[in-house]
Amino acid sequence: MQVKPRLGTFTVTPKEAGGLILKLLEFAKGRVVRAEWRMTKVQLINNRGRIMKKQQSKKKRIQRNKAVTRSIPIDIVESVLMHMNPKDAVRLSTTCKKWRATAPRYDPTMSKTPWLLTIADDFYILQSIIDENMSFKIEIPSFLCGRKFISEASHGWLVLRSGQSDIVSLLNPFSRARLDLPALKHPGPLFLHMSSPPTNPNCVLLLVDAKNLYIWRSGDRSWNIEKNVNARYYTSTISFQGQFYAIVDPYYRLVTFQVLPLLVKKLDVPPPMDINDMMMYDVSLVESCGEILLVCIHLSLLYRADHDIFQFQHDIHDTTEHDVILFQLDLKNEIWTKIESLGDQTLLLKNNNNQAISISAREAKCCGDSMYFINHWSRDVYFMEKHSIRTVSRGSYSISRRFWITPNLI
Fold first, then answer.
1. How many CB atoms lie within 10 A of CB 93?
2. 323-335: burial string, b at 16+ Cβ within 10 Å, e else
3. Angle formed by the axes of helices 74-82 and 97-106, nearest 10°
4. What are the DSSP calls for 258-297, one per residue?
5. Rounded-to-integer distance, Cα 41 and Cα 312, Å
6. What confidence score (pLDDT) does residue 320 get?
7. Which of 2, 73, 149, 247 sits at 20 to 30 Å (Cα–Cα) from 386?
8. Where are the domains of the chain?
9. Whole-prediction pTM
10. Interatomic CA distance for residues 150 and 332, integer angstroms
11. pLDDT value of position 69
């Protein structure tokens, strides 16, 4: 009996049903293939990205390997830096990261070890205290020629004065930074002290004349003047823990003072020796390892060194224990205590009220428990160690001034 189809329904034969199933399977297969292809495509894109990153990383490594500091043997880099003008060597370290990382390791002028700065008629010379044969000539900036002279060096900066004007300028010979200070109302004050580089917001610069103390702080637009101050009698001045300390002539008393407002306090610390004996010594205050030291060098020691230098420049002269005497300040008991050794420290001194410097001999790779001393009158430099003295650099009439200066880009 034949069945008639109802309205809204349909019938298929088994053959037609098999064909539909095959088509459905082919459709599903196509969908799966397309999904797999999309996944494969994503994987290919990701792999391509990883491959490109690896290639870029490899390219960067190759470029780094071809960089100056990698392609040139390190001993050549060291030789180049050590024979380069220190001013240019220091500035070279700011050109790129690689030189900035390399220069401090091999350029001796990048260390914190002070150098001897010699100012002659037409040139500057930087001389190493570690290697007596290492020196560099520095070109004098054009604006200095014939107009200004160097009065002192402090914290890597030169204090410039003009003989015909009331302008004081500060110059960093390594970074070439220059700072013109406000004009002085009364030209003529001499340098007394600078507590820190002028770029430090806490920097205080002190000048002094016969009657007044001139004070400049970083950012000031004018000089502050303290009148009727006996600062001209300060034979040696240092800054220590936010205060200034000075030895005062003629009785070698110790005073401490602050500025703005000016408060001077005379400490009840008697001289470490009889005053008549003290007059036979060149006296310098120096801050060393958190302590205040008083260094007394007998004037006859310098006379003997000067007298013999005309025969043998590097002769060694025996000294006695009384030629150089060291004292340490005991603030609590207000007394100077004699000490026998500087330990690891090396002192760099200069008479005529220059700021003394204390450095670690181990870090500077020089001799500990020793001193370098510049004679203001002869311009000679002496090295003193274990009761002996020798001349390491001889002065001449062409040398106008000599200072200790620490390379500083700040």
1. 19
2. bbbbbebeeeeee
3. 70
4. ETTTTEEEE-----SS-HHHHTTEEEEEEEETTEEEEEEE
5. 87
6. 62
7. 247
8. 279-410
9. 0.70
10. 39
11. 47
